[in-house]
Amino acid sequence: MTSRTVTLLDVARAAGVSKSTVSDALQGSGRVAEATRDRVRAVAEELGYRPNSAARRLRRASTGAVGLHLPATATRLDYYMNLAFGAVERAQEDGLDMMLLGPSGATGGRIASRVDGLLVIDPESGDSAVPGLLDAGVPVVTGERYLGPAGGPSGAVVCDNAASLTALLDHVTERGARRPAVLAPSGSSAWATALRATAGSWGRARGVPVTLRTVPFAATPAEAEAATRELLAADPAVDAVICAPDGSAPGVLRAAAALGRPVGRSDGASGSDGGSGRGGIGEGAVHTADESRGSRSGNGSGHGGEGARPGGGGATADGSSGAPLLVASCVDGTATRGAEPPVTAVDLRPAAYGRACAALLCDILAGRTAPDTVRGHAWSLEIRASTGPSAAPAGP
Known about the structure:
Elements (H helix, E strand, L loop, with lengths): L7 H8 L3 H9 L6 H14 L5 H8 L4 E5 L8 H16 L3 E4 L7 H5 L4 E5 L8 H5 L5 E4 L11 E4 L2 H14 L5 E6 L4 H17 L4 E5 L5 H14 L5 E4 L5 H10 L25 E4 L38 E4 L4 H4 L6 E4 L2 H16 L7 E4 L2 E4 L14
Parallel strand pairs: 1-2, 1-3, 3-4, 4-5, 5-12, 6-7, 6-8, 8-10, 9-13, 10-11
Antiparallel strand pairs: 11-13
């Protein structure tokens, strides 16, 4: 292994310590035991590790800026725009400017010479820019964990995505669904991976068949409509569709209307779920109001028919049965709140999430928080007419 190919991660693996410990040991900073510092330096010398010039310059002076890397689909999804505004606002509170990186990213050395740290949101293991950013020689905070082979970030802010889909699946079955389906996102982000895995594990644990269809990570309403038509034609017994991609719910509603599948239930508009709010990290509170919060959504609205109870009705070859269909979304936003009927959805609170990511990075840069810190971010379930009115309050 030559000095040109050796990275901090290589040294960390050989020395049996974390990447941040290697960085602290080589820079003479942080709380690293003398024996560990000596071992790390010896391993680095043996491997031929040489820090890049950008990282050396960065240690001498602050740039007063941090970088933000978003998925390539970010520009057409409201979720990421709201997240970015939240991150910018929080960084400015610590006197830091925010530099938005291009979708293709940049080499770690080039970026490290211009920023003090990096935010990398929803990193995909297939994104060629991410490994270089994680190994740029500056603190990095990821929004959701990176599942690729490169070294871990300095910190992360995570949602309990398995819990949020579990809450949706529990909710639609409590409202009468017996054959739920999930339009899950493709890709290798932690969010997409968790949703696909949870759809299967939830069904196995409860003995309820869950139909899983994979759609693009940023599926458009038209793509969601086509996927829903195909899904219902293949299995007309499906009585609930949970769509994951931001802004795709109107497409599901359009498919339901075209197939004569009324959305929701017949006995009124949505109301209180009767459940208690579940606060705390990784869990969501249950809400029913159509709150005007920014979320991971695109534009457009769809139209469902009159509500009716799930179940009943004969099916035709194209999925038309007249049986009602419950519809929900893994991401809340203007498309779900403004649809007809309004769609039950998970509010991921993107602006607050962006603030949380930036706050963690600021805390690491200022020495207020140790590197490798992981913080949780809470979500909430917003119950609306697409899954019918409230049920009776559950007993203790």
